[in-house]
Amino acid sequence: MDIKDLLTGEIYRQCIFGTIAYDELTKSLESIKDSETDQLDRFWYSVQTFLAAVSNISKLLWPFAPFGSELSPETSTRRETLRGLLGIEDSSPLKPKKLRSYFEQFDSELEEWASRSKDRMIIDSNVGPLQMSPGASGPIAYMRNFDPVKFTLVFRDEEYQIREISKAINDLAQRIQSSYT
To answer: Which of 13, 25, 122, 164 is positioned for an S-S bond with 46, CB 3.0–4.6 A?
Structure first.
C-alpha cells in the first residue's frame, strides 16, 4: 500500500468520525431544554469532536510543518496531488484552521480576552441567536456560540457554517468511497 492510499484511508476515517459527531450534534441539539445541562454538555462535546475530525481532515489535506521546521517539497507536492485527485479546492470549507485553533488553544484565547477586555460581559457555550442576551448592559463577548436557526458556530467574531462543512465531509467521503470500490 502506498502513502496516497494510507492518507486517503485516514481522510475517509476522519470523514466518518465527523459525520458521526455531526449526527450526535443534531440529535443533542433537538433535545436541549433549558434545564437539561447534560444535553448541553453533550451538544458541545459533539461540536468539539466534529471540529477535531474536520481539523484532522484539514491537516491531512493541507499539512503544516512542526514548529521550527519546514515542510518537505515531496510532502507538499504529494498533498497537492491528493487534493487534486479528490477534487478538493483551496476554497473548501475544510481548509480554514482558525476555528480549530480557537478550540485547541482556548486557554490562550481566554487569557487574551481577559487581558484586553475590561468591563465586558462574556457568554460561553451558548446555544441561540447572538441577539438573545437579556439583561446585557454593555458589550458582550461570545466565546463559543451556536445559532440553531442559521446553524452557525461563532467563536468571538468568526462565524462558521456547520452544514456547509458537514456537506463537504459527506461529499469527500462519497468521492473516496466511489473511487475505492
So the answer is: 25
